[in-house]
Model the fold of this input.
Amino acid sequence: MPKIAKDTSVQTVITTFEMTPGTCQDLLEALTDAYAEFISKQPGFVAAGLHVNDAQTRIANYSQWERREDFLAMLRTTEMRNRNRQINELCKSFEPVMYEVAGTFGGA
Done:
């Protein structure tokens, strides 16, 4: 489970996927398979979550890695390059962006 904290040393990657409602479930299954079968087994992987909007036109993916280099190494593998080609066919666009946690807030 992802842990969001300002003082964490992990690399956070947020990826937004845009698709049509007709391809949302197929894309969600492709992403779920990628995490279950490959990504979660890569060196440096910490945790991830997938979120789908109500209109089924966007999927947001939040992942954490021990180091930036671990995430980049996973992207460069033949396995992930092939998976990303398939994922790209199911969506209009997707873009992974690396972030640092600037703050967290909790309710009472």
